[in-house]
Amino acid sequence: MSAERESDRFDSDRFDAMDAALRTIVCDSPDWLTELIESQRSADEYRIAAYFLKSLDAASGSNIWARTRNRLFAVIAPDRQSVLIECIGRFGDEDDAPVLATHARSDHLWAPKALATWAEIDPGAVLAYLDTFPSLARTPAGRGWIDRLFDFDAARTRSALQAWREACDPTGGALAALFSRAEDRVDEALVAHLLSKLEDLMRAPFAEGARDPFASLVNLLGSLTLDPRHDGLFEAYRGSELAARLCARAIDHVDGRKDDRQVAVRRLLRRIGGADYERLLLHTLSHDDLGKSRAGIAMSIFAPTAPVVSRLEELTAVGTSEGDAIEVRLSLWRVLLALDPERWRPRLMGLTKSEAEEDVSFALRLLPEYEEAGDQNVLLESLRGRARGSTMEAMLMNAAAVAGPSDRDLTARALARLGADDDEAGRLGVLNTLIKDQSPEPRAIFDKYLERLGTAKSWKSYDSQALVARLGQGGASDALWAIGERVGGRGFWSADDFVEQLVDKDEAKALNILLERAFSEPDFITNVQPDAIATLARIDKDRATKAFRQAWTSYPDRRRNMARAVRALDPSALEAMVDVLGEDRPGTGDRYAYRAACVELRIGHETIQPYLLERYAEADAARKDALLEAIGWMPDGPGLLTGILETERDRQLRDKAYEVRRVWLDAAAAAEQFRRHPSLVTMEFALDVCEPEPTYMREDPLRIIDQISIDPQLTYFAEQQLARRLNELTKSNFKRVRVRARRPDA
C-alpha cells in the first residue's frame, strides 16, 4: 500500500479501495495488526500500520498501542512520527508524556498537536514549559488544550498564557486572538488587561493588516458571546480617551469609511456606553432620509436617552429614498412602541382613522404584533364612514373580522361586496367576515357563493381556504363537501386542511388519501407528506409511525421538513431518528436535518433518552460521535455526559463529550444569569449562547421567554434576535419570531 501511494501512476480510487479493505481486516482482526507490527517491516510499512491503528476503537487499539509503541518509535524516524502523535492522542497515557514533550519543543509541523495532547496528559508539565516563554512553540488549534490547562489550574493558566503570548506580541493582539477561542475562560483580570492594551494601541499609529492587534482586541472585547458580567469594567471607560477614539472610528464607519472591524468597534462602544455611544447614535440618526438611519434605529434600543428618543420621534415624519421604506418605518415604530407603549400604541391605533391609505395599510400591518382586547371596537369605529367598495374599507373590514367576533355592520358590508370582481384585500375582508358570522341568513348566502366554485375553471387560494374553514364549522351541504374533495385532490395549499376536516365526516375516505400521501414518494411541496402523517396519526397512529419511519430512512433530503411530524407518533418514530443520526451529524451530512432531529429528541426526552443511551453503549466510535451531540440536547445533557466521561476510554470521544457538555453548561449559566439580572444585554448574551428553541419551549430548563415577554423592550429585541439566531442555525428566513402572548380571543 505504501508503494502504491508513492507510485508515479497513483490511482486514488484503487488506493481508497485498498484502504477500505485493510480497515475492514484490521477492525475484524486486530491481532493481525499486532503481528504485522511485531514482525520485521520497513519504516514506511510501520507508518501505514500506525495509520490503521489510530482508527481502531479504544478497547482494542489501546492494547495494541501498549504492546507496539516502543517498536514503532524505534523504527519510525522522528521527523516522520506525526501519525504516532495521533496514536498517543487516541490511546496514550502518562508514559507517553516525554515523547510529547520532545515533539512539542521541536520545529515539526505537528509540534502544536503534540503540545495539545501533552496538555491533556500532563497539564502541569505544559504550564511549566510555557513559563519558559518558548519561542518555537506555535499555538495549537482548537480550545480543548486550553480547557485542560484551566481545569488543572485556572489562575496559573491565565498567567502563563498571557506571558507566553505577550512574549512574542506585547500589543495584546495574540493574547486576544487566543482567548477568542475560549471566551468563557476570560475573567475580569484579563478583560481589564486587554482594555488597557487597546487603550495603549489606539494612542499611537499602528499598521493594520489581516491579523493586526487592533482587530483581535476589538473582536474579542466587542463579541456578543463575551459574558456581560464584565461590563462594569467597560463602563469605567465612559468619557475616556479610548471611548472618544472608538466613537470617532465608528462615526467614520457610518460615513462610509467601512472596514471589517466596524461591527466589533460599534459593539465595543455600546458596551462602554455613555455620552460617546449617544453621540454615535445621534450621528447615525442624523440623516433626513429614514433608510440611511436604519442602523441607528436598531442600535437605539440600548441607549434610549432623551435626545435619542426625541430624534426617533422626528424620524416618524421623514421619508426615505430606499426601496424598502415600509420595513424601515416598521422598525422605527417597533422601537418607539417598545420604549413607550403607553404613548405610541394609541398613536398606532390613530393611524387606522387616517384618510391616507398608506397610513391605514401601515397600521394594519403592524397592529397584529401589538394586539389587545378591544382592538375590534377601534377598527369598527375607523370603518364607519369609509366609502363602500373602497380599498380602505376592505382592509379595515378584514382587520376587524380577524380581531373579534362577528358584527352586523361588518356582515352587511361583506354581503354587499360578495361576488364582486374584487382585489385580494377586498376578497379577504369578505371571506373572513362571512366565516365569522354563522347566523342563518348570511350563512345561506355564503354557502351559495362557495357552491359556485364547483363550476369555476380556476380558484384563488383564499377561496379554497375559506371553503375548508367553512367545512370545519359543521352543517355544510353535500355539494360543498363534493367541492372540498376537488380541493383535496389538487395542489392547493389548503388541501391538507381539507383532509383534516374530512377525517371527522368520512374517516374511511380520508384514510385512503392520507395513506397514499404518507407512504408515497414525497412531491415537490415539502409539507404534504409530514402533514399527512400527522393527520393520519389521529386515525391510525401505528401506520402513521410506520410511514414516518419509512420516509425518515428513505428520504434524507426531506428530514428537516419531516421532523415536526414525530410529535404525533409512537416512540419508535423517535427511535428511527436516533438510528440514522450518524448520517446527518455535523460535518458529514445535512446539519440542518441533524439539528431538527435533536430539537425533537429534546422535546421527547422522557421517551427517547433511555434508548439514546442504550444505542450509545453499543455503537462504534464514529456513531458515538454523532450520538454524543444528541445526548447533549437532553434536558439533563450535562449530567449524562459527566457519566459518560467517567467511563469512556476513547480520548477523542472524551474530548467530544467534554466540549458538548461545556456548550450546554454555558447555556444553562447564561439563562440563569438572565433570570437573576434581566436586561437587554444579559438577554442578548443568553440568546446567542443558548440554542434558541429551548429558550421558548414549554417546560424546558432553558426557557426564559416568560421573563422576556413581560417587558416591552426585551420583547421587541428578543423577536429580532431570535429571528437572527434561527436564520443562522436552521436555514430559515424569519424577520421576527413572535414572543408576545396572543389575545385570548385571537
Draw up the topology in text.
Elements: H1 2-6, H2 12-28, H3 30-38, H4 43-53, H5 58-75, H6 82-91, H7 97-104, H8 111-121, H9 123-130, H10 144-152, H11 154-168, H12 173-179, H13 188-203, H14 213-221, H15 231-235, H16 241-254, H17 262-272, H18 275-284, H19 294-299, H20 306-315, H21 325-339, H22 341-351, H23 357-366, H24 375-383, H25 391-403, H26 408-417, H27 424-436, H28 440-451, H29 461-471, H30 478-488, H31 495-505, H32 507-519, H33 528-539, H34 541-554, H35 559-562, H36 571-579, H37 581-584, H38 591-603, H39 605-618, H40 621-632, H41 637-647, H42 651-676, H43 680-689, H44 692-696, H45 705-708, H46 712-730
Helix pairs in contact: 2-3, 3-5, 4-5, 5-6, 7-8, 8-9, 8-10, 10-11, 11-12, 12-14, 13-14, 16-17, 16-18, 21-22, 21-46, 23-25, 24-25, 25-27, 26-27, 27-29, 29-30, 29-31, 30-31, 31-32, 31-33, 32-33, 33-34, 34-36, 36-39, 38-39, 39-40, 40-42, 41-42, 42-43, 43-46
Tags for this model:
single chain, 746 residues, mainly alpha
Describe the model.
The chain is mainly alpha-helical. 68% of the residues lie in helices and 0% in strands. It contains 46 helices and no strands. The longest helix has 26 residues, at 651-676.
